[in-house]
Amino acid sequence: MHLTSRADSSLSLVSSSQGTNFAEAMALRSISRRFGSRVLSYRSSSVASLHSHATSFGFQQVKEEEKRKLVGNVFSNVASSYDIMNDVMSGGLHRLWKERLVGKLSPFAGMKHLDVAGGTGDVAFRIFDAVNSVKRRALRKVDEDSLEETQIYVCDINPNMLNVGKQRAAERGLGDNKSLVWVEGDAEALSFDDNSMDGYTIAFGIRNVTHIEKALAEAYRVLKRGGRFLCLELSHVDIPVFKDVYDLYSFKVIPNLGELIAGDRESYQYLVESIRRFPPQEKFATMIADAGFEKVEYENLVGGVVAIHSAIKL
Amino acid sequence: MISILIIEPAITTIIPFSHTYGLCTSSSSSTTTWEGTRRKPRAEFQEEKARVLSASLRHVPRLGWTEEAMMAGSRDVGVSPSIVGSFSSKEAALVEHFMDECLQLLLDRVDSGLDLQNLIPSERISKLIRVRLEMQVPYMSKWPQALSIQAHPVNVPTSFKQRAMLVDEIWHSVGDGASDIDWYVKRTVLGGVYSTTEIYMPTDDSPENRDTWAFLDGRVKDAFDLKKSIQEAKYFAQDIGAGVGKSFQGLMNGVMQTMSTRGGGSSSAF
Questions:
Q1: pLDDT digits (tens, 9 = 90+) for A235-278
Q2: B99 to chain A nearest CA, in Å?
Q3: What is the DSSP letter of B121?
Q4: Quick one: closest CA in A to B59, which residue?
């Protein structure tokens, strides 16, 4: 697998305002005409595909401003059956994937962690459990610094998802626990301070963000030096026969399950389409590296159905 | 005179980028690593990791060779303890870092004039091993833990390699340049002396580890006696070989003679 060389950093993908995308595309097209190189046309197509992420709602084309609202509607609709649907669609595997994510994170007592788009709290609860069992084990080695309180912030743009999460916390008896903090917020504009988090996770959420680069830039901003970024997301499968099986399952089975169990075919159609529109593993890894992260790696699970990308801010 | 002006075409190589992507595939099944377009090179992670591990050593006597020690070390360096989660082998990383540092320290001591000139080889070996083992004295209370970490099957390849390097460097400093079969024997024997002394040391209560050094001297002496016996064994084997060889040759000659006197047989030998 070879990646071709990149264009000038002034045309870097980390552009922040909507208007520049069009200008960039124009500038790139004129440059590629001058040099006529295959290299830059790869670049312009990559810019175009990212631009397309911001304006794609599954396979539909929508205005950028609208995407956020449309995604919001999807999650308001699915909130109550989100967990059941996850179990049915993945055959319970999503639990293992989240366990793997948290295992990779290696949570520790006293950590400040931010779980973005973590509405119903799956990842947050796992981190909470991991920290408390580690604490119990390490109780005999009391280090003064680690007596700082663990804080796990769960941030989600959709209040319905957060409510489901708070409810689940109450069911587990963690309703009043100070360690879990539920915050409504946007992954592209986090309300947390710079250099305040030891860890940042986003599980099955970054696909729904309008501007991925903004979310990555925010992640970089809030992480401390040495802090880790972990992203669990549905990704691209390349294995020949398995790919076709997976496509069949995605487009034929899942929307029907959505209709049957959640009474909402469109949302699940959006889900499977948005997976196909999301950048593949390597592309996403380069985007993470562009945001400034070091040691960017990814691990494919189930042949690429799911990928865990990890990186460190240094 | 015709002066030929060779006008070279101006070759403008436009390199519109300042960094290229490096694609490194690690040995595991599907994990791949990327460099970005930032100026910070990937080596910075390795440097940061080394700094954290060095700072962690200070906490080892109290916290052991554990993640807690590494997290305390990372706080000393000013980095979030999260970084420890990204080290692939956790505690083993700390122990291996320590072994590498000690080896480097030993080599520095040798280069900067550790007095070896007036000593015979067995004494030089003793001195070098002693210098190396003394580096472990501050961690002696937790050294058995380090040994058990090194003995985990997962960690054995690295710890074996580090010890082989250590033994090699010690022989090299002693002044040994042999490259025959002796090389393996010497490394193995010295490895044995080093390991047994290392294991004896945590049990030693004597002031300034006097008993350990006496033990060490004894083992080195045994090794040199062993070396002599191995040499003798080699000569003995050679003699036997020669003898057997002679008789085989004699047998062959006899067979050939018999065949030629029988007459007519094909002379193509086997």
A1: 999 899 999 999 999 999 998 988 888 888 888 888 889 898 89
A2: 24
A3: H
A4: A143
Share of chain A above pLDDT 70, in %: 79
What are A135-169's pLDDT values in tens digits? Answer: 655 654 555 544 568 899 999 999 988 999 999 99
- B204 min Cα distance to partner chain A (Å): 26
Closest CB to A143 among B26, B72, B78: B72
Whether ipTM > 0.90 holds is no
Residue A286 marked in a binding site:
no
Domain count across chain B: 1
Asked whether residue B95 is domain-assigned, the answer is: yes
| Full residue range of the structural domain in which residue B143 is found | 90-261
Inter-chain touch B75–A145, beta carbons under 8 Å: yes
Backbone angles phi, psi at A92, to 5 degrees: 80, -5
Please state, in angstroms and rounded to a whole number, the distance separating the CA atoms of residues B121 and B229. 17
Strands A294-301 and A306-312: antiparallel
Is residue B152 included in any domain, yes or no? yes
Cβ contacts of A8 on chain B, cutoff 8 Å:
16-17
Contact state of A198 with B82 under an 8 Å Cβ cutoff = yes
Residue B148 lies in a domain: yes
How many residues would you count in chain A? 314
The CATH number of whichever domain residue B159 belongs to comes to 1.10.357
Determine whether the interchain pair A289/B67 forms a contact, defined as Cβ–Cβ distance below 8 Å: no
CA angle A212–A17–A113, rounded 5-degree value: 40
The verdict on B63 touching A (C-beta cutoff 8 Å) is yes
Evaluate whether A209 touches A187 at the Cβ level (below 8 Å).
yes
Q: Spell out which residues of chain A touch residue B34, defining contact as CB-CB under 8 Å.
A: 282, 285-286, 288-289, 296-297
- Let me know if residue B270 belongs to a domain: no
